């Protein structure tokens, strides 16, 4: 690949990141990107299923998450009938992790932040632009009952 094509491709990737588009043009070629991860679900142990269930149920409701299924001391949260986040009082409580959920817009980020604080989460970064990532990276951060850093982010320009 020539240096010129490399520059054009880098511009294309930057356009995808900044504008949230899924396709851009590189010369006569249209380059498309899939803007999602391929994880099926993630799970971890919690100290108190009841406390964590209450927190995540309230905090993620603005994003459309609901309980998909549960058993004694464990459960799955997700959207459209598909479990995406598993938590339970099984095994060791994980060292705090960083979870980042995608929001469709900035209003949903704001709604998450308000709901998460009302559910007992601790502020770890009010909603706002994080330009160090890219100009449209609008996120909020809250610490859950087990010390996990829960982020909700929108990449949409508004």
How would you characterize the overall build of this protein?
The protein is of the alpha+beta class. It has two domains: 30 residues; 113 residues, 2,3-Dihydroxybiphenyl 1,2-Dioxygenase, domain 1, CATH 3.10.180.10. It contains three helices and ten strands; from the N terminus they run H-E-E-E-H-E-E-E-E-H-E-E-E. The strands form three sheets. It has a four-stranded mixed β-sheet, with helices on one face. It has a four-stranded mixed β-sheet with strand order 7-10-9-8, with helices on one face. A two-stranded antiparallel ribbon has the order 1-2. Strand 9 and strand 10 form a beta hairpin. It is globular, with a radius of gyration of 18 Å. The two termini are 35 Å apart. The mean pLDDT is 84.
What's the SSE blueprint?
Blueprint: H1 3-19, E1 23-26, E2 29-32, E3 42-45, H2 49-60, E4 66-71, E5 74-79, E6 82-88, E7 98-102, H3 106-118, E8 122-129, E9 138-143, E10 149-154
Parallel strand pairs: 3-6, 7-10
Antiparallel strand pairs: 1-2, 4-5, 5-6, 8-9, 9-10
Helix pairs in contact: 2-3
């Amino acid at each position: 690949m020539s240096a010129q094509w490399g520059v054009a491709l880098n511009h294309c990737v930057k356009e995808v990141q900044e504008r949230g588009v899924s396709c851009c043009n590189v010369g006569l070629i249209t380059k498309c990107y899939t803007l999602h991860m391929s994880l099926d679900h993630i799970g971890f142990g919690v100290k108190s299923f009841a406390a964590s269930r209450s927190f995540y149920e309230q905090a993620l409701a603005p994003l459309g998450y609901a309980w998909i299924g549960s058993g004694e001391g464990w459960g799955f949260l997700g959207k459209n009938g598909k479990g995406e986040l598993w938590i339970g009082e099984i095994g060791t409580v994980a060292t705090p992790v960083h979870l980042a959920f995608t929001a469709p817009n900035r209003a949903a980020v704001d709604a998450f932040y308000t709901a998460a604080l009302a559910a007992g989460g601790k502020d770890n970064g009010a909603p706002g632009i994080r330009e160090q990532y890219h100009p449209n990276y609008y996120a909020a951060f809250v610490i859950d009952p087990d010390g996990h850093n829960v982020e909700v982010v929108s990449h949409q320009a508004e």
